[in-house]
Amino acid sequence: TVESALGHGTRFDVYFPAAKSAKPVEVDIDADVLGGNESILFVDDEDTLADLGKQMIEFLGYRVTALVSSLEALSLFKKDPYAFDLVIADLFMPGMSGDELAQNILAIRPDMPVILITGFAEQMTSEKARLIGVKKLVTKPIVMKDMAKLIRDALA
Asked: From edge to edge, which strands make up the β-sheet containing 39-43?
C-alpha cells in the first residue's frame, strides 16, 4: 500500500508471506581455507560492491578497510605502507585505475600482494597484470569460497 500527503512524505507498506521455517544459509568453504587475521585494503568505486566485498572478507576473519576511491586508497596506503597485508582493487575506477593503483603501491612497497578484480577481462590480461607485479587478475563475480582461496594464495 502507498500513502502520500503533500508536505508530509510518502509511506510504502510491503507485506510478504511469512516463511514456515528459517533455514540457515550454509557456506561451502574448506576449513583449512577459512580464516586469517591479516589486514586487507579493499577498493571498489561502487558503494554496494565495496560494502559487499568488505562483508565477505570480514566473514572470513580478516580485518578490512573498504574504500570507494583509488586516490583515497593510495593516500591511506602512503601514510602507513605496512598497515595492510594485501590490497584487492577493482580494475576500472575513476581518478586512478586499479592497475595504476597497484603500480603506485608496488613502487612504495614492492612485496605487497595485490589482486585486481574486473568485470571486463578483455582489457587486462593475466600476463599484463603479472608484469606490473599483480599476484592475480580475477573476473567478477567472485563467490566466497573463491575469495577465501584467492586471499590465502596471495598471502602465502
From this structure: 63-67, 39-43, 86-90, 114-118, 136-139
